[in-house]
Amino acid sequence: MRNYIDFQIPESFGVRIEQGRPLAPLTSIKIGGPAEYFATVHRTNQLLKLVRWARSVGLPYLILGGGSNVLISDTGVHGLVIHNRCRTIRVDEPVPSDFFVDARPFVFAESGALTAGVARTAVQAGLTGLEWAVSIPGTIGGAVVNNAGAHGSEIKDILWNALVLDQEGQVQDTRASHLGFRYRRSILKRSQALQPGFDPVVLTVNFRLQRGDPVQIRERAAHYLEHRRRTQPVEPSLGSTFANPPGDFAGRLIEAAGLKGYRIGGVMVSPVHANFIVNPGGVGAARAEDVVRLMDHIRLNVLQQFGIELEPEIQWVGKWSQVR
Ligand SMILES: Cc1cc2nc3c(=O)[nH]c(=O)nc-3n(C[C@H](O)[C@H](O)[C@H](O)COP(=O)(O)OP(=O)(O)OC[C@H]3O[C@@H](n4cnc5c(N)ncnc54)[C@H](O)[C@@H]3O)c2cc1C
């Protein structure tokens, strides 16, 4: 069997490949087995070189951002997990020119920057458009892939462009309109079931934001943060487990089915918000299979009681005991 550790990664990459690194601590629900191969990148050129190297040796990879939207199987991930910690964020003022009259500043971010950090930078700079994102977990790369959103706004509303490493290994300057955004999806989100492969990688992004009243911007951001603290559980979770069905709310249906507080293994339906499955015990206290069984139980009960089929919002990574 091929051992990729034996492949020489050029020392100039400044990247070390580990074997068997536990992934649970790197996910928001604190569940999941180990990565066969694992590397952390801190700069975009490391990410770029590592992905190109993995392609050149035929080693499938998976980008892990904040791990806040993926359920990793108990057996872990076969391939290379690249933990993205490329976190530069910057406000770029427009340079006046005869050809370019738009005076709106850009906010630049490397794809491993925390979404909340990007939003806070914008708020502090008196820029409006990202206040809703101050409380979104995970990285901006994951937020672009998922077209993350809240309070009626989404990434697609303010994203200008992204540098994307395409499937041929070329870096493409991609305008937001070419990313096929729709509700919590983009063309970069392949499918609900995810395995390491040779998929495109978001390297950096630019948001185009408006100047606004700094006091109002700060107040809006504080309001969204406070709303979240009041309405969502604090225990480890993956956020909303199911997408809202047309004209209704998954949380309302699960609560109406009497499932708040329902437990399987180490996980339970949150008593605070029924669309959240929480792992109160943290790392080591629950299994991915517990989450899967609880999700199946929820779907069956909601279907039997209301005739509505709930669709998962999260992605599954790795091998499962039954086909998902
Ligand atoms: C408590 C809680 C609340 C949440 N609330 C919201 C909410 O209000 N709105 C909302 O939209 N979401 C919400 N989420 C879900 C989640 O935070 C978002 O989907 C988030 O944007 C995912 O980012 P991530 O970095 O954690 O992605 P990950 O979970 O690490 O990855 C998600 C997918 O993106 C891919 N990916 C990540 N980075 C890159 C990259 N650079 N290039 C290519 N592919 C990449 C991964 O391979 C994977 O397929 C919530 C989650 C939690 C835990």
- Please tell me the CATH architecture of the largest domain by its name: 2-Layer Sandwich
* Radius of gyration based on Cα positions: 20 Å
Order of helices and strands: EEHEEEEEHEHEEEEEEEHEHEEEHE
- Distance between the first and last residues' Cα: 28 Å
Give the low-pLDDT segments. none
Bound molecules: flavin-adenine dinucleotide
Structure description:
The chain has a five-stranded antiparallel β-sheet. It has a four-stranded mixed β-sheet with strand order 1-2-5-3, with helices on one face. With 324 residues, it is of the alpha+beta class. The two termini are 28 Å apart. It is built from six helices and 20 strands. The chain folds into three domains: 4-84, Uridine Diphospho-n-acetylenolpyruvylglucosamine Reductase, domain 2; 89-229, Uridine Diphospho-n-acetylenolpyruvylglucosamine Reductase, domain 3 (2-Layer Sandwich); 233-317, UDP-N-acetylenolpyruvoylglucosamine reductase, C-terminal domain (Uridine Diphospho-n-acetylenolpyruvylglucosamine Reductase, domain 1, Alpha-Beta Complex). The site of flavin-adenine dinucleotide (FAD) has 35 residues, from strand 3, helix 3, strand 9, strand 14 and strand 16.
